Amino acid sequence: MPTALFVTCLNDTLYPGTGQAAVTLLRRLGVAVDFPQQQSCCGQMHYNTGYRKETAKLARHFVEVFGEYDEIVVPSASCGGLPSEAYESAAEAAGDAGLLRDVREIAPRVHELTQYLTDTLGVEDVGAHFPHRVTYHPTCHSLRARGLGDRPYRLLRAVGGIDFVELPAQEECCGFGGTFSVKNGAVSGAMNGDKARHVLETGAHVLAAVDNSCLMNIGGRLTKDGHAVRTMHLVEILARTEADGPLADVPVARNGALR
Amino acid sequence: MSKTFMGWPTFPKAAETATADEQLRANVRRATHTIRTKRAALVEERPDWQDLRDTAAALKDDVLAHLDTYLEQIEEKVTAAGGTVHWAADADEANRIVTGLVRDTGESEIVKVKSMLTEEIGLDGALEAAGISARETDLAATIVQLGDDLPSHVVVPALHRNRSEIRDIFAREMGKHGRPAPEDLTDEPEELAEAARLHMREKFLKAKVAVSGANFMVAETGTLCIVESEGNGRMCLTLADTLISVVGIEKTVPTWQDLEVYLQLLARSATGERMAPYTSTWTGVTDGDGPRAFHLVLVDNGRTRALADPVGRQALRCIRCGACMNICPVYERTGGQTYGSVYPGPIGAILNPLLKGADDPQTASLPYASSLCGACNEVCPVKIRFTDVLLKLRHDVAEGDAKVKHRAEKVALKAVEGVMDRGPLWNAAVKAAGTAGRLLPKDMNLPGPLHGWTDSRALPDIPKESFRSWWKRTEGGTK
Ligand code: SF4
Question: Which among A173, B63, B103, B439 is least surrounded, fewest beta carbons within 10 Å?
């Protein structure tokens, strides 16, 4: 059975390149990928804002769309985590025992993409080549809720030609937090400003993460302040090979050495 | 009149002012980073740290499950040891009891040992209204009181002040309340401490009545315990004739052996010390030693309300170490007063709604005062799962019993969900977004509640082709 890609609604609309990179990379690693067309949104924004009954409807839809697949891969730590972190309480709030059974059953089959690479497929060197200076922001969800640990770093350090620099104060939240960024714009903006400053301190030309929501936040700040740092989902880096060459409008790392 | 948080603005409103205050942000950042670094080093040296946390959480859960029994035990033991126990259902009742007790002594100038509970119930104001002046003796609490300010941290109430601000407060205010600060006072920490020491000593030696809180109450012996750094607590606890301790009912631990667990966790978490310089315990009254009268006022003030919430009740495990504030990225940018309560930071964001109910806009804004980053979950010595409680409280506001509702938001999210749980509609919506993208100017500012996003960020470009359109057009990337 092919592996299902749950691309997430944010990636679908705003970051299709992340989904395409996931398809390219998984295929290169010998995984058959399917994209069930009826998929929509995991309900994260609803759940985190307190709307559990609304989340339950989206959980029901998720189960209907993905129920038949053995493995479901998600290029987002926060959306990929939702089925196991939230769907049970959502089903309980909706008083839907059938849904509760179904979400318990499907949750273990939903995998965040980097974890799928390192744990399920057991790879670290995915044959990628990326001759640019890159820094990495461990998003709160990937770091604390999903516990990705050093997995993303192992994958990045194995990329050919990469000039990887550690991000100062990397474990600090970028201030996104879903509707937090809108409800508490002032605090969110202050947190994001510090994060953007740390990114600039690294001199990196590319900022990577495993959640495009946080990258949209940090990148939005960098762009607003007139900085040219490119934000990229980790999988977009991993999908590139020597044949692709360097990115057209991003400086090439001169020493090309690991740091 | 002592200040209170009455009529405070909602968190986002208060945060707009606080985040714009560069001095405040610098003060809070420096202080929290200093304490968090010290804490991290001391936690590192304890290989059994996670076991201690597990034990501390489990013990408190046991206490909370049998709180009635333990409190009766405390009443019995304190009474047997010559103390008197009073029960206060809420702040008013607690204030009435304490005011009455002080009046009975005939004293009008009393001293206090820093206590967040007395701040919570507004005791100073109640005493003042009755003509009783209660002066703080803890350095940070004194800074707040002299400055007619409000606390911003549970361990260091004046954390938002730097030393030059403190110097100015001392120079200006000390003389109005007793011994003035020296003429040539500078902002050297030693000089500030000495000025405070002399100012307070006068009060310790005169006062016949002291009011304290307690960090712990040991049920098996009816013993109270205070942990502090300056020795002012011990002075108050031993020098006064009458000691009135006002304590929240959740401060209970069953036995002395259990106390050992918390004493190992508290100082490390709170100030980054292995042990606090002063740990004082007292049981009732003893002839010829210490106070001749001891009153224990046990305060509920919403604690049984919090206890009734199966997810939220874990907030009552809190031992007020402040570690969650010191690690919190939101607190770091806003300081503590923004939370409109003596309990700020992550614990404030959950405890206030649990104690009071999210029935007014200020309290209802607190569960949203978090990006859910989860850093607090990792440092709390009693393992409170803040993110679980925050999400539960948001659910109460959004779909549950809380009286404050966000109607417009609900309608908006419902519309999104209505589209999203039906595939074809969602497909159409994604396509429409692609079209709209070309119409949205890049530097546009969003109107209404959405301006929070565009104030400090550019909007991303909306690509012309969504992932699903690409998949369809290229037959899954094969063409
Ligand atoms: S909630 Fe935990 S970390 Fe925060 S003050 Fe209480 S005990 Fe300390």
Answer: B439
Q: Which amino acid is at A121?
A: L
| CB-based contact B433 A177, cutoff 8 Å | no
**How far from chain centre, in Å, is Cα B204?**
28
Per CB-CB distance under 8 Å, the chain B contacts of A62 are: none
**Cα B95 to Cα B318: distance, rounded to the nearest angstrom:** 23
Number of Cβ within 10 Å of residue B242's Cβ equals 21
Alpha helices in B240-385 (DSSP H): 256-270, 303-307, 323-327, 329-334, 345-356, 361-365, 375-379
Tell me which residue has its CA closest to atom 2 in ligand 1: B380
Q: Which residues of B touch A50 (CB under 8 A)?
A: 367, 391, 393-399
Mind listing the pLDDT tens digit for each residue in B388-420? 999 999 999 998 877 776 666 666 666 656 655
Report how far apart, in Å, the C-alpha atoms of B327 and of each of A10, B126, B154, B335 are.
Answer: 30, 34, 14, 12
Give the containing element (helix H, strand E) for A206: strand A206-209
User: How many angstroms separate the CA atoms of B214 and B269, rounded?
Assistant: 17
**B40 pLDDT more than 90:** yes
Q: Label the pairing between strands A230-233 and B278-282.
A: unpaired
CA pair distance B50, B468, nearest whole angstrom: 46
Q: What's the pLDDT at B436? A: 47
pLDDT at B439: 42
Q: B262 C-alpha vs ligand 1 centroid, how far in Å?
A: 12
Ligand 1 shell residues, CB under 6 Å: B 154, 269, 318-324, 347, 379-382, 384
Q: Name the nearest CA neighbour of B117 among B8, B247, B226.
A: B247
Exposure string (b/e) for B445-467, b if CB count within 10 Å is 16 or more?
eeeebeebbbebbbbbebbeebb
pLDDT per residue, tens digit, chain A (259 aa), is 899 999 999 999 999 999 999 999 999 999 999 999 999 899 988 999 999 999 999 999 999 999 999 999 999 999 999 999 999 999 999 999 999 999 999 999 999 999 999 999 999 999 999 999 999 999 999 999 989 999 999 999 999 999 999 999 999 999 999 889 989 999 999 999 999 999 999 999 999 999 999 999 999 999 999 999 999 999 999 999 999 999 999 999 876 544 4
Residue B421, pLDDT score: 57
Closest ligand 1 atom number to CA of residue B319:
7
Q: Which tens digits make up the pLDDT trace of B351-390?
A: 999 999 999 999 999 999 999 999 999 999 999 999 999 9
Q: Which residues in chain A have their CB less than 8 angstroms from residue B456's CB?
A: 185, 188-189, 192-193, 220-221, 224
Q: What angle do CA A116, A119, A121 make, to 5 degrees?
A: 70
Closest residue by Cα to atom 4, ligand 1, is: B324
Shortest distance between the Cα of B194 and any Cα of chain A, in A, equals 37
Across B346-358, b (16+ Cβ under 10 Å) vs e yields bbbbbbbbbbbbb
Q: Are B370 and B349 in contact (CB under 8 A)?
A: yes
Contact B416 A41 (CB under 8 A): yes
Q: Which residues have CB under 8 Å from B249's CB, separation 6+?
A: B67, B71, B298, B299, B300, B303, B304
> Which atom of ligand 1 lies nearest, measured to the CA of B347?
1
Supply B393's token pair.
């409280």
Minimum distance, in Å, between the CA of residue B478 and any CA atom of chain A: 10
Residues from chain B contacting residue A89 (CB–CB below 8 Å): 391, 395
State the DSSP H helix or E strand holding residue B123, giving kind and residue range, or none if neither. Answer: helix B123-129
10 Å CB burial of residue B296 (0-12, 13-18, 19+) is: buried
- Closest among B311, B341, B312, B343 to B325, alpha carbons compared: B343
Residue B230 has pLDDT above 60, yes or no: yes
**How far apart are the CA of A211 and the nearest CA of chain B, in angstroms?**
13
As given in the structure block, the two tokens for residue A198 are 């740390």
